[in-house]
Amino acid sequence: MSKLILANKNNISDIMRIINDAKVYLKNQGSNQWNLPDGYPNEEVLLNDINNNECYLYIEDNDIIGIMVIMERIDENYTEIDGKWVNNDKYVSIHRIAVRNDYHNKQIGYKMLKLAENIIKSKGIFSIKIDTHKINLPMIKTLNKLDYTYCGVITLKRSKEDNLRNAYQKLLK
Length: 173
Hints:
- It contains four helices and eight strands.
- By secondary structure, it is α+β, with helices and mostly antiparallel strands.
- An eight-stranded mixed β-sheet has the order 1-2-3-5-6-8-7-4.
- Strand 7 (149-155) and strand 8 (164-171) form a beta hairpin.
């Protein structure tokens, strides 16, 4: 059985191991995403996610397989878009999805996003926004499979380097 649960500070070493694996994976795919000199996402960022009750662990058979951030506040990166959002209703944004290397190609990202939809709907919110690097083909494929709508390109505020991301939105039923 799989589930998403809120992370706590005791999980930081597992979280950072998954994040660091993801950095290597992305680099091997030819992507600068998560591989810029600023070190993003780093332990400070993830501890902040935990303190804000936004960092979730994906658990299968009592094992931490992946992590993701479900953020209920306004995302400053989504205020401007070269394109158009599906709507401007209240939304949740999802960030920092990462899966352990030994679980790649097992649809874990898909499973995580489906579980996140249930959490988000339970909060009375029916819109999700998410972004990814244009060459992160596994994530793009997953978003397409889950019927996310491509909305355009956003510019990340935290960096001047390689800061364009494809932006997607999904309305939940």
